[in-house]
Write a structure and sequence with these properties.
Blueprint (H helix, E strand, L loop, with lengths): L1 H27 L4 H57 L1 E6 L12 H15 L7 E4 L4 E9 L5 H4 L8 H10 L13 E10 L5 H4 L1
Antiparallel strand pairs: 1-4, 2-3, 3-4
Length: about 210
């Protein structure tokens, strides 16, 4: 009888400890509303600056030598440019998709979950909004959808239509495992995935 009672008390204590631990974890992973809004703004700022830098360089390369020149630029310079901007903004900046051109852009498990949710919402005709998720006690991740526009179609459109066959053949020389084609204007291309430290008033804002 005493053994059963002791076992019952031990089980009750263990359940209580687990419940308290889960409650503590839930509390720790909740981002206050004010901070969430600030992180969204910071993420948008970083994504906007990166997009402006990339699109400016890409359009210049396209104007100078067409799709072939733009593809070579992307292959050689896009990653170094994003890496340099990551250092400027003290963040880890990525662009990822369910249909990648460069295998380095393949999504991790968390990114794939967000991308699939965006894709599902897009297919249902719902608005796609940026969002923030806590990674750990020190950092957060910002995600935002990237949609296709007419300029993108010259490299990511439908082969034989918006993407010329000769340009598609050239793309395959650099990216033989390319999946990033077949898009139409307004389609969901992928998303920004940007990680940075908590605390909006960090190095980026103090320098």
């Amino acid at each position: 009888m005493e053994i059963k009672l002791a076992f019952l008390l031990f089980t009750t204590l263990l359940i209580s400890m687990v419940a308290c631990e889960n409650k503590s974890q839930q509390k720790a992973t909740t981002i206050p509303q004010a901070d969430n809004a600030a992180y969204l703004e910071k993420g948008k700022k970083i994504a906007g600056a990166t997009f402006t830098a990339l699109s400016g360089k890409l359009q210049a390369a396209m104007k100078e030598g067409g799709v072939a020149n733009a593809i070579q630029y992307c292959n050689l310079a896009a990653f170094p440019l994003v890496d340099s901007l990551s250092k400027v903004h003290h963040a880890d900046i990525r662009r990822t998709s369910l249909k990648v051109r460069n295998l380095k852009d393949a999504p991790n498990a968390d990114e794939k979950t967000i991308l699939e949710a965006y894709e599902k919402s897009a297919q249902a005709g719902k608005a796609l909004k940026p969002l923030v998720r806590e990674i750990d006690e020190q950092s957060v991740a910002f995600y935002a959808p990237i949609k296709v526009n007419n300029l993108c179609l010259q490299c990511h459109g439908k082969v034989g239509e918006t993407l010329a066959e000769k340009n598609h053949a050239f793309i395959q020389q650099f990216y033989p495992e390319d999946k990033a084609i077949g898009y139409a204007d307004g389609d969901l291309r992928g998303m920004w995935s940007i990680r940075f430290s908590k605390g909006v008033g960090n190095k980026e804002n103090n320098e």
